[in-house]
């Protein structure tokens, strides 16, 4: 079984290597990656920032459960609780950086990564309470 910390570190390393390559600019922006980014009293696993120190993607990592792909509510990227956790971090970042919408957010384990588009803060109550 892979621990969440092991997977987070591996994903951080892979993304760091990609983002440090100057050929990988998105929209002309140099992107940076932060691990265990503190937002409010919580810590988002991984956050990608644009050049202006604006968060553009929050990734919530989960461990792999057992030998087969898991559908556990605690580790499966499509589980409501896991999506809700990632959305919560995205929402808190939007508030902290005074953004009109959340950054994109994603859930990931070693088997899957699921990316969600930003949500306008004016519509956020449809998704979280």
Question: How would you describe this structure to a colleague?
Answer:
Helix content is 26%, strand content 26%. It has one domain (4-126): tt1808, chain A, CATH 3.90.1570.30. The chain is globular and about 40 Å long. The longest helix has 17 residues, at 4-20. A five-stranded mixed β-sheet has the order 1-2-3-4-5, sandwiched between helices. 29% of the residues are buried. The model has no long low-confidence stretch (mean pLDDT 87). It is built from two helices and five strands, in the order H-E-E-E-H-E-E.
Assembly status: single chain
What is the CATH architecture descriptor? Alpha-Beta Complex
* C-alpha termini separation: 33 Å
Q: What is the class in the CATH system?
A: Alpha Beta
Rounded mean pLDDT score: 87
Strand arrangement within the widest β-sheet reads 1-2-3-4-5
Most strands sheet: 5 strands, mixed
User: What gross morphology would you assign?
Assistant: globular
User: What structural class do helix, strand and pairing data support?
Assistant: alpha+beta
Tally of separate domains: 1
Mind telling me the C-alpha Rg?
Answer: 15 Å
What is CATH's topology name? tt1808, chain A
What is the overall number of helices? 2
In the predicted model, the low-confidence regions spanning at least 5 consecutive residues are none
User: What is the string of SSEs from the N terminus onward?
Assistant: HEEEHEE
Residue share in helix:
25-40%
Strand fraction equals 25-35%
């Amino acid at each position: 079984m892979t621990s969440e910390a092991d997977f987070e570190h591996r994903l951080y390393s892979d993304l760091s290597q990609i983002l440090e390559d100057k050929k990988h600019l998105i929209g002309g922006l140099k992107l940076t990656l932060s691990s265990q980014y503190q937002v409010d009293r919580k810590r988002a696993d991984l956050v990608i920032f644009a050049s202006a120190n604006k968060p553009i993607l929050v990734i919530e990592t989960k461990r792999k459960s057992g030998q087969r792909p898991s559908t556990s509510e605690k580790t499966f990227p499509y589980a409501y609780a896991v999506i809700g956790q990632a959305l919560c971090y995205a929402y808190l970042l939007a508030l902290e950086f005074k953004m009109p919408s959340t950054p994109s957010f994603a859930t990931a384990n070693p088997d899957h990564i699921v990316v969600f588009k930003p949500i306008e803060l004016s519509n956020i109550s449809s998704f979280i309470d």
